[in-house]
Amino acid sequence: MEFCRVCKDGGELLCCDTCPSSHHLHCLNPPLPDIPNGEWICPRCLSAPLKGKVQKVLTWRWGEAPPPMPVPRPADLPADAPDPPPMIGRKEREFFVKWCNMSYWHCSWVQELQLELNCQVMFRNYQRKTDMEEPPNLEMGAEGDEDKSCKRKNKDPFYARMEDQYGRFGVKMEWLLIHRILNHSVDKKNNVHYLIKWRDLLYDQSTWECEDMDIPDFETFKLHYWNHRELMLGEEGRPGKKIKKVKVRKTERPPANPVVDPIIKFDRQPDYLDSTGGTLHPYQLEGLNWLRFSWAQGTDTILADEMGLGKTVQTAVFLYSLYKEGHSKGPFLVSAPLSTIINWEREFEMWAPDMYVVTYVGDKDSRAVIRENEFSFEDNAIRGGKKASKMKKEAAVKFHVLLTSYELITIDQAILGSIDWACLVVDEAHRLKNNQSKFFCVLNNYPLQHKLLLTGTPLQNNLEELFHLLNFLTPERFN
């Protein structure tokens, strides 16, 4: 190479003995006082390989300058003269990176040269979009959020360490917290690894972590995972190291046979709802009684009410009552607009704490992870891959409730239509008003024991719309 790798100028150059690169002595970091004797290898060839594939760059900072390079004392220098000053190095950029197939707990700093050599396209794109003179300031947020963060850091040393090591470099604290443990595996040394879904991240960002990773509430989530596995499969053995004893609310096994007649009217909400800390309004309790009575009579129903009066709560409580009283263990299918799914999650978490609820949304990669790990505990219950396929008939379902969008009812009919659903709930059921819609036709082919339609939209004296809803519920009577 006839020009310097750093400044691109010619002149007297030092050539690498293992690659074509050339450098000026003063362009090296730290600069060299003289041409070295013997073999010389350039910084690019000495650069350490990355520990994995980089998924994305989060931020950058100025790193420490390399140690100064001492200058040999010239032979003709007077004895009383001071030593020549050392050659001072320059600060170099370091990049905070997220690794592929690894959680944000494993983010680390890499040298600029490492990133440039191993991720050229990503490095150039990041340079184009980012100010490379001044590191980005990522400590942004409302004043109230900053006050809360400061208070929590003062109270919780572990949170303070997380904030210092990750938060101020572009990692949201939620990405470091467990949402749910999906699965486990055991290696040849009998070490257990857990597949973890992280808060505020999609399922395709789930990662495998070793059982002794230092993660907040890891022991609690391990217990939840094994308790649910024991509840659904009857397994009691747990591989790996003994899980530390922590206080967790153990899910109660539902009764094998019905313990309450659903025809009997509740004058007050049952004890299992009192334990949630919530209180139903009188009209919601009346709605619950009506839904239970209709279920006992084998009558599919439409719950029509003004928006905001708690149809979601009544539905969650209705399904929970079937589960807690031994009438049905599910699975229950809830189809709702994508924008309301988060509200359904919140209400089930509040009103049905013993039920295992799975949200089936996202892109093909996320849905593939959900199908493989959240539909059944059994291996190969569903064929892997991005394309949905039927679930084995004998495979036990892992969840009690599945929340999904209208679109996926049609798109993933292969898997969803292969499960025997104890009850279907359709939120904003006026979507069914057109009996020619694909959504309507697909749902007609699902195996459904009971149907509940929710609507808050007035039918505006349109008997045809009402007829289509009734036709979906009981096609043999309204055809």
Short description:
The chain is an alpha/beta fold. Among the domains are: 46 residues, Herpes Virus-1; 203 residues, Rossmann fold.
Tell me what you see in this structure:
By secondary structure, this protein is of the alpha/beta class. Among the domains are: 1-46, Herpes Virus-1 (2-Layer Sandwich); 271-473, Tandem AAA-ATPase domain (Rossmann fold, 3-Layer(aba) Sandwich), CATH 3.40.50. It is 30% helix and 14% strand. The protein has helices at 43-46, 112-118, 120-129, 143-155, 157-165, 218-233, 271-274, 282-297, 311-324, 341-351, 364-374, 406-411, 413-416, 438-444, 463-473, and strands spanning 14-15, 22-23, 54-62, 93-99, 108-111, 178-186, 192-198, 207-210, 301-304, 332-335, 357-360, 401-404, 423-426, 451-455. The protein has a six-stranded parallel beta sheet. The chain has a three-stranded antiparallel beta sheet with strand order 3-4-5. It has a three-stranded antiparallel beta sheet with strand order 6-7-8, with helices on one face. It is elongated. The relative contact order is 0.07. Mean pLDDT is 86; it is low at 140-144.
